[in-house]
Design a protein that fits this description.
about 160 residues, alpha/beta, two-stranded antiparallel ribbon, five-stranded mixed β-sheet, 7 strands
């Protein structure tokens, strides 16, 4: 029996969407903890909606922070974590594979760099502190009290 490409695509897409739903339901962070999107304190951008943060992270509107005259540098962690899975599900609304495909196609079409991949949320904090163009995601408990960063979006 041969399956049509459209049948396979629909079922693969359904599986990806179900994995996003299950992932967002199985979050095991601390009570009251949420994912926050952070930028460098020097970045003049204010609070954003999840949709606006998604567009900036994906560089859909612009590749640059106009007010900083700096490239937007999205950050990602290697491997899987509750934080990453919640960010993918609730902000990007993509599976990990869909995110990598998105950035691969942008790299090919626009010669854009994919997100900088770091080892941990602490590394995201450090990178954002040192780079005015960086945008990343961490758990709110990780960001609390850290200097030279600011939260621009909280994901519930």
């Amino acid at each position: 029996m041969q399956l049509s490409p459209s049948f396979l695509y629909k079922h693969i897409r359904l599986f990806a969407l179900l994995s996003i739903v299950v992932t967002s339901m199985s979050f095991t962070g601390k009570p009251g903890d949420s994912v926050v999107i952070i930028v460098n304190l020097k970045n003049p951008i204010g609070n954003l909606t999840v949709a606006q943060a998604k567009d900036i992270y994906l560089r859909k509107e612009s590749k640059r922070w106009k007010a900083l005259n700096s490239n937007i540098i999205p950050l990602d962690t290697r491997g899987d974590s509750d934080t990453k899975n919640m960010f993918l599900a609730k902000v990007l609304q993509m599976s990990k594979i869909e995110m990598y495909r998105y950035f691969s196609s942008r790299e090919y079409q626009n010669q854009e760099q994919p997100p900088v991949r770091v080892s941990s949320e602490d590394d995201i904090i450090k990178f954002v502190q040192e780079n005015s163009g960086a945008i990343g995601y961490v758990m709110s408990s990780v960001a609390d009290g850290k200097p030279n960063i600011k939260v621009i979006c909280t994901v519930e």
